[in-house]
Amino acid sequence: MLSRRIIPCLDVQEGRVVKGVNFINLRDSGDPVELAARYDAMGADELVFLDITASHERREMVVEMAAMVADAVFIPFTVGGGIRTTADFKRILRAGADKIAINTVAVEHPEIISDAAEKFGSQCVVVAIDPRMVGRYPDGSPHWEVFVHGGRTPTGLDAVEWAEQVEKLGAGEILLTSMDRDGTQAGYDLELTKAVSNCVSIPVIASGGAGTPQHCYDVVTEGCADAALIASMVHDGHYTISEIKQYLLDRGVPIRILHEGN
Amino acid sequence: MIAIVDYGMANLRSVERALLRAGGDPCITSDPELIGNADSVVLPGVGAFCACATNLKDSGLEEAVKFAMDSGKPFLGICVGMQMLFEESTEMGITPGLSRFDGRVIRFYENSAAPPNIKIPHIGWNILQPARQSRLLEGVPAGSQVYFVHSYYAVPSDSQLVSAVSDHGESFCCAVERENISATQFHPEKSGSVGLKILQNFVNWRS
After folding, report:
1. What residue segments make up the domains of chain B, in order of their start?
2. pTM strictly above 0.90
3. Cβ contacts (< 8 Å) between A75 and chain B: which residues?
4. What does the alpha-carbon distance between residue B134 and residue B201 come to, in Å, rounded to a whole number?
């Protein structure tokens, strides 16, 4: 049976991890390679690096970072943030990343999804969707609108319809971040996650709001997510990945547990 | 030297680095002579079956790959590199493979509706269930999980070929082995320490 995945997300700027990852004995270390290796050893199933570097020239650094991470860890990792073209895909994939997450560019130029899927395979095309609840439809169901540019710009797109659209275009996975919950540690938006997950046949990675192992449990059960993206709750050292995984395992969720002696 | 066949597909550097970590001396190459002289050969592959099969043919490396398999040297196919060892795939019409083994490559739930909780592609970690003794999977602890990314899988005509299965709503063959030829549907290069153990077995495999 396929395991539910626990995926730490690291914010990267100019090739360094930012927004404080505070492991014991590793305070303020921003070395993506060291952190990737650490999370790998702790049982992370994948890693996501979100590049928040603003300037264009510095994009070289994300390619360099991908190459160094790929040298050090042998689990899949995704790079996202600021990708504009299939040439960007090619460079970062060649450097050793397994998947590329696109967001704004997918809304502005949806054909990049099918272009990239055709050139590199659907398996490496992750479409990130950042919805915010903006009201309710006449039938009472929630209306989640897709936002881009880091949640600043409304698009007029309905999140569930956009999810169906990106699947049709050839996306291999959806990274769904609730703008209402992001940064709150108050729990994932289960209703949103369930609505999106149940309308597509590709895997959905839930993001935004994780604060406790219970939140992770809720989103992979009630929320029907295939994977749970986590950030502060592990970066701050409040929980370890193995604590989260053990919590899920104890409640009957299929999870990958590392074997001793490997 | 372990030749990693470069026919214009796949993230070959991951395979190269993982083999290096496993103690091997990998070399990414599209030179048929180098593939001919290698001690062992790895055929990776990601993306669509027909794109891989077409690229392999167009690159002029199909003969070198077949020759390597016939030569008796250790051979490892990964993902679509495993699927191509079979007769044909149903992905995007019927595309012929290398026909090294009898059987075809089909989609998950090709002839029936997938249950609502089963997502396709099959992406993530799943349990490797050994079907019999295998040189490639020797020493891999029971219950180990490996990383998959695929929608199609091979169905060997001869069940004796199957060295491991996994389960995604339906049970499927995820590794085969016969004489010098082994292949995995999962990605050992992305399967953490379990994957490195499997690659170590391949590195230490002497013809």
Report:
1. 2-203
2. yes
3. 147, 190-192
4. 10
